[in-house]
Design a protein that fits this description.
The complex is a heterodimer of chains A (about 140) and B (about 525).
Chain A (H helix, E strand, L loop, with lengths): L6 H24 L7 H19 L1 H8 L3 H14 L2 H6 L8 E6 L3 E6 H26 L1
Antiparallel strand pairs in A: 1-2
Chain B lengths: L1 H21 L4 H29 L2 E4 L10 E4 L1 H24 L2 H5 L2 H17 L3 H20 L4 H32 L4 H7 L6 H18 L8 H6 L4 H27 L3 H24 L3 H29 L4 H36 L10 H4 L1 H15 L5 H15 L3 H27 L19 H24 L2 H15 L1 H8 L20
The chains are: A mainly alpha (about 140), B mainly alpha (about 525).
């Protein structure tokens, strides 16, 4: 396929892909109060998979992410839209930010809310649409 | 309850678009989801309209951030009429799509993009925030650009690029204008702008930013002189896409002009003098283009330009009457009601004509007038429906176009704008000419040549009869609507008149957004808007 046949690239990809995946999640989670968020996190995740696609070809990269990027796009959109619903149902308002907090032993307080839910949707949409484009370009 | 009603016209198409994307490998299921979502959106729009008619304008603050800091969703009667247009056209296109959208097109994302386009349009009609409106414009532009170029033939890409380029320029102008507005007033909430912009300390900058933003909207509405993108793109894409775009997309531009200049941009009456001149130019240039076009979809595309002129004419006459002579309020109401009714009429009729061109394309593989003929013998039902719809577009009595044009002409004469009335009547005559041309060439004359090869999106020959029958369902319904408005105009006219009254009293909108309850406000004495008259 369109893979670059390079041992160096394949080896670095094997090392970089987990790092990029982890880093993208970190960026996603810290985005609520600090620079970061779903958009940039999604780009980082997509760049990791894109690197894999350059090293091993788009076919193997497609197998890596499982379903088609369009399916992921639908999932991300669904996540984003459904984050509007709790606010609507609770009467606080369309897209209102709602939070639950839980005490975790040793780690402190865990706060989860609809903004992170929405951001996760953005993350998936951005990563999926970047990958859909990149795979298409590679295959042509 | 209010918040749910206001967000449903956005949430339904967006959720359905996500579902379509996830079902990318199953085109028939996508078509079903698209139709279901279209009907649900239509139902939600009807429910919202009923609520607004009962309570007056309603607003909800997204994310529970109070206006003017958060994004407000707000619906007055004008927004409701526009939402009804949007969901009605979406439903018609979804029904037609059951027969006319083939498998490669569907798995390319036709249904999902149709739904995101509809969501973008709903968003533009519902938002009370000018920057958010820009965002919805981008949603519309991206979805429609892909819809126009899906299939990637050379002609489609040419048309699509013309469309994208001019619309991106318009978006840039719009965004720059919003930036200046924010710099001047520190707000992008339209109701807040209505209060703060008149007090801004640099009036010449206010005039300039008004010109920039209205130019952007005029490009989006395909008003003269920058309308070239519309005929370039509408006749290269599948008819069902052209129907969607002709039905709602350019009307978003007209709606934005009405909303923005009635609230905050139109502080000088000179703006509306310009708009009036522009509307006349749009009508004339559009109809001349249609008169010389030799392809059905190109005729229809140029007519879309021409008809935008009528809508702008009604609005300009209304605002001139309201601003220069405060005692002529009823005339202003009639003119604006006429313009809004014209949008309803045009959405039904022009959508329908494009859908009919889809049937012609399916039957003959071409829409070039010279190669057509004899359709009224081979497709009598299609021919009859075309005749009713085309005569409505031309403004023949007993049909919707007549009622809308009558309101515009009466208001124009009463307001003393005789020149534009004369122009509009002349353009009506030419509209009748080019509709007769299409009737004569495509339907009436003897067939010119044996049917040519089918175009790539005209579908599978084996299912032609079933597909044509499916396509004719929405065509029949829309033709019926044109007839219904023509024969029994008072419900539609009353709705449009109420929308016009609200637009001409911006205080009601401002009060709704900024948190005064419209139900407790005395109907006769709204707080005076801070506008120089």
């Amino acid at each position: 396929m369109n893979a670059l046949d390079s041992v160096i690239l394949r080896t670095t990809t094997r090392l970089l892909l987990p790092v990029l995946a982890f880093f993208s999640i970190v960026v996603l989670l810290r985005g609520h109060n600090e620079p970061g968020g779903g958009f940039i996190g999604g780009l980082i995740a997509a760049s990791g998979v894109a690197l894999y696609a350059i090293a091993h070809g788009p076919d193997r990269a497609r197998r890596l992410i499982g379903p088609d990027p369009r399916w992921w796009l639908g999932l991300g959109l669904t996540l984003g839209i459904t984050s509007a619903i709790p606010g609507l149902l609770s009467g606080a308002g369309f897209f209102a930010g709602l939070w639950v907090s839980a005490q975790l032993p040793a780690l402190g307080t865990l706060k989860l809310g609809t903004p992170i839910w929405f951001d996760a949707g953005v993350y998936v949409v951005v990563a999926a649409s970047m990958l859909a484009m990149i795979f298409r370009l590679q295959e042509h | 309850m209010t918040a749910a009603l206001l967000s449903l016209p956005l949430l339904i198409p967006l959720t359905a678009a996500a579902a379509c994307a996830a079902m990318w490998a199953r085109p028939r299921a996508q078509a079903g989801v698209c139709l279901g979502a279209a009907l649900a959106t239509l139902a939600a729009s009807v429910a919202l309209t009923a609520q607004v008619l009962r309570l007056g304008p309603i607003a909800a603050q997204a994310g529970a951030w109070p206006a003017p800091f958060g994004i407000t969703l707000v619906a007055d009667t004008l927004s409701c009429v526009m939402l009804l247009i949007n969901s009605g056209v979406l439903a018609a296109a979804a029904l037609h799509g059951l027969g006319s959208v083939d498998r490669p097109r569907a798995s390319g994302g036709h249904h999902a993009l149709t739904l995101t386009l509809a969501a973008g349009v709903s968003g533009a009609f519902l938002t009370g925030d000018i920057f958010n409106m820009y965002v919805w414009y981008e949603v519309m532009l991206l979805s429609s650009f892909v819809l126009v170029t899906l299939g990637s033939t050379r002609r489609q890409l040419e048309g699509g690029l013309a469309y994208l380029t001019l619309n991106l320029i318009a978006s840039g102008l719009f965004l720059a204008g919003v930036g200046v507005l924010y710099g001047l007033t520190g707000t992008v909430n339209m109701a807040d702008l209505a209060l703060k912009l008149p007090a801004a300390d640099r009036p010449q900058l206010v005039t300039a930013v008004g010109a920039v933003i209205l130019t952007a909207f005029a490009i989006k509405a395909a008003a003269a002189p920058l309308y070239f993108w519309l005929p370039a793109s509408y006749d290269t894409c599948p008819p069902v896409v052209a129907a969607l775009m002709a039905g709602v997309l350019s009307k978003v531009g007209v709606y934005s002009i009405i909303r923005a200049s009635s609230l905050f941009l139109g502080q000088e009456a000179a703006v509306f003098q310009w708009l009036l001149a522009l509307s006349g130019l749009t009508m004339v240039l559009g109809v001349f283009g249609a008169a010389v076009a030799v392809e059905i979809r190109r005729v229809l595309a140029f007519h879309s330009v021409s008809q935008i002129g009528y809508m702008l004419m009604g609005f300009a006459v209304a605002m001139l009457a309201a601003r220069t002579r405060p005692e002529s309020q009823p005339v202003a109401e009639l003119a604006l009601a006429g313009a809004i009714l014209f949008m309803v009429h045009h959405a039904a009729v022009k959508t329908n004509l494009f859908l009919i061109s889809g049937v012609v394309l399916r039957a003959r593989g071409t829409t070039r007038l010279a190669q057509l003929g004899g359709l009224c013998h081979t497709h009598p039902l299609t021919a009859g429906l075309f005749f009713v719809t085309a005569m409505s577009l031309a403004g023949v009595p007993l049909l919707s176009g007549f009622i809308a044009k009558l309101a515009l002409v009466r208001a124009g004469v009463q307001a003393g704008q005789d020149a534009i009335v004369a122009v509009s009547l002349f353009v009506s005559l030419l509209t009748l000419y080019s509709m007769s041309k299409v009737w004569d060439q495509a339907f009436w004359k003897a067939p010119a040549a044996p049917p040519t090869k089918r175009m790539h999106f005209s579908g599978d020959p084996a299912t032609a009869d079933r597909d044509t029958a499916l396509m004719l369902v929405p065509i029949g319904l829309l033709a019926g609507l044109a007839l219904l408005i023509g024969l029994w105009p008072s419900p539609a006219l009353d709705l449009c008149r109420r929308a016009a009254q609200e637009v001409l009293r911006p205080a009601l909108y401002v009060g709704t957004v900024l948190g005064q309850d419209p139900t407790t406000e005395p109907a006769q004495a709204p707080t005076p808007p801070e506008e120089p008259l």
